[in-house]
Amino acid sequence: MPDLNGAVTEQDQQRVWAALDKFRIEIPSWGFANTGTRFGKFSQPAAASTIEEKFADAAQVNALTGVSSTMALHVLWDLPSGKSDIPKIQQLERTYGIRSGSINPNLFQDQEYKYGSICNPSAEIRGNALSHLLDSVEIGRALNSRDVSMWVSDGSNYPGTQSIRRRIEYMEEVLAATHAALGPDQRMLVEYKPFEPAFYHTDIADWGMALELARRAGPKAKVLVDTGHHLQGTNIEQIVAWLLHLNALGGFHFNDRKFADDDLTLGSIDPYQVFRIFHEILSDTTTNFNDIAFMIDQSHNLKGKVEAMVQTVATAQELYAKAALVDHAKLAELQKSCSLVEAEETFREAFWTDVRPIVRAWRQSHNLPANPLTALAESGYVEKISQERSAKNAASVSSYA
Ligand code: PSV
Ligand code: MN
Ligand code: MN
């Protein structure tokens, strides 16, 4: 633990180093594409518009950070032809040295999902949603990806318009059938969100619903915590502590928020919260660390996309390193004796310690740039892709004219 002058001992450094050695975080393919708000999109010349370009950008982020060698795929956006796109993805994995990460089925864009997907009152539509989920499981298996991340946007906008209870039953049925199709090394992660796009009731609105649905689906189903999917004031680290206690934490979608599901870059608004979440994980001795998938789920609609992704990965490492500084034995003693100020100061001391020199040294020892953002700027990568992609996009627009 750093002393009161913020000096970091050799032992502290080793602890942080060991934590950094294990830390990996997955990047989302959609973070490189032009995305926006429901009011519109400001397109960026460097944005990726093909799956090849997303793989290229992911490879660039990984080359600079060394800790992001998997990319989450959204089935509809990245494999628009479904299973027949598998060989193409495999080829891209080989070309760019990036592996497919979690597979995200899309249960929210098809016109037939107007009144829901797996909770739709129509058996036919639920059947279509299930067959998309089964395809997603197959895609995951073929790509050696462990997790199928399920976000169910279903819900309703007005009281009395849907049977909340009937919809629970519909969901249970589909989730059980999806779980039954999972291979031995596959998992199903159930994500929750309190509202949006539905504004009266959302079928999986909080971690309790996600947990119960996961439990009923089967042992390979776990809960996915998206940090932006909570109502104001929710104590997310407490939810994390509970899920760890129940062996039900499957992973995270990291992002930050000020108001709702803002998808801002991790730690940009409240870095202390990310630290507190990491502390819960690092202070848990019973969970297998590899069972927790750390994933980014952000939409960079104003910031440069590759820059924002590198910035996020670097921030995640720094906050993780800070959490690794906490002296658990000392904190446990102080908690036991209810030494409130001392306990809080022990916790805060780690948060306020500047770990960036240690993280930089760790990167250099792994032949990585000490400052990946500066290295990105010096590499000229963003300028290069901006030129190539804007020329290509202009050509494809004129060819449609
Ligand atoms: C929904 O808000 C969400 O968090 C889900 O994880 C989606 O898959 C992702 O955003 C991308 O739209
Ligand atoms: Mn998410
Ligand atoms: Mn979200």
UniProtKB/TrEMBL annotation:
GO BP of this protein: L-lyxose metabolic process; rhamnose catabolic process
SUPFAM superfamilies from the UniProt entry: Xylose isomerase-like (SSF51658)
Keyword DNA-binding in record: no
Membrane-spanning segments: none
GO molecular function: L-rhamnose isomerase activity; metal ion binding
Domain spans labelled Xylose isomerase-like TIM barrel: 79-279
Sorted UniProt keywords: Isomerase, Manganese, Metal-binding
Pfam families to which the protein is assigned, alphabetical: AP_endonuc_2 (PF01261)
Cited InterPro entries: L-rhamnose_isomerase, Xyl_isomerase-like_sf, Xyl_isomerase-like_TIM-brl
Name recorded for this polypeptide: Xylose isomerase domain-containing protein TIM barrel
Originating organism: Granulicella tundricola (strain ATCC BAA-1859 / DSM 23138 / MP5ACTX9)
